[in-house]
Amino acid sequence: MCGRPFLVRVSGRSIWRSESWSKAKAELDARIAKARVEAPNGRSGKLMPAWTLHDLRRSFVTHINERKLAPPHVVEAIANHVSGHLAGVTGTYNRAQYLTERREALERWGARVAALMEGTAEQGCAAEAGAIVSISPG
Q1: Which of 22, 23, 122, 133 has CA 20 to 30 A from 50's CA?
Q2: Average pLDDT of the residues in 76-99
Q3: Residue 86 CA: distances (Å) to CA of 33, 62, 70, 78, 104
Q4: CB-based contacts of 92: which residues, under 8 Å, 6+ apart?
Q5: Is the CB of residue 135 less than 8 Å from the CB of residue 9?
Q6: Is 76 helix (H, G, I), strand (E, B) or coil?
Q7: Is 101's pLDDT higher than 90?
Q8: Looking at residue 113, what is its pLDDT?
Q9: Which residues are CB-contacts of 42 (< 8 A; sequence separation ≥ 6)?
Q10: In sequence order, which residues have a C-beta less than 8 Å from that of residue 28 and are 6 or more positions away?
Q11: 108 C-beta neighbours (distance < 10 Å), count
Q12: DSSP of 29-86
């Protein structure tokens, strides 16, 4: 997470349930803005840089690769990318879905996120300390 200052937790009901992605993102943006205004840790009033839903996917792929939680071809399978390991001729013949490896990688990622939220994770850099912003349902 070095250089990436926030990991966001949304408590209460799921904002992703049956709503459109754009509506859910707008709601999450509003919650983030409110949390930042109320933040006691020096972030109060600072706006978060603009982001897109694709940034979540890119951040996941980056973090899981940086932490070596799965081999690159498994990360690509999780992200549903057809590149690198499965591009070209290899992809024509290799139809493996890597379901067990994907599940295990996602479980490791979930454990990492849970440890960050609980404050029990080993910090990779100073920027990770206090990087959790809890957002309650509005």
Answers
A1: 122
A2: 77
A3: 40, 19, 16, 13, 20
A4: none
A5: yes
A6: helix
A7: yes
A8: 85
A9: none
A10: 8, 10, 15, 135
A11: 15
A12: HHHHHHHHHH-SSS-TTPPPPP--HHHHHHHHHHHHHHTT-S-HHHHHHHTT--SGGG
Per-residue pLDDT, 106: 94
Q: Which residue has the tokens 């609980």?
A: 118
Q: Does the pLDDT at position 82 exceed 80?
A: no
Tokens of 60: 């996941």
pLDDT, mean of residues 58-65:
92
The tokens for 89 are: 């001729």
Q: How far apart are CA 56 and CA 43, in angstroms?
A: 21
Domain boundaries, the chain: 7-135
110 touches 7 (CB < 8 A): no
CA 82/CA 42 separation, integer angstroms: 42
The residue whose two tokens read 């454990």 is 111
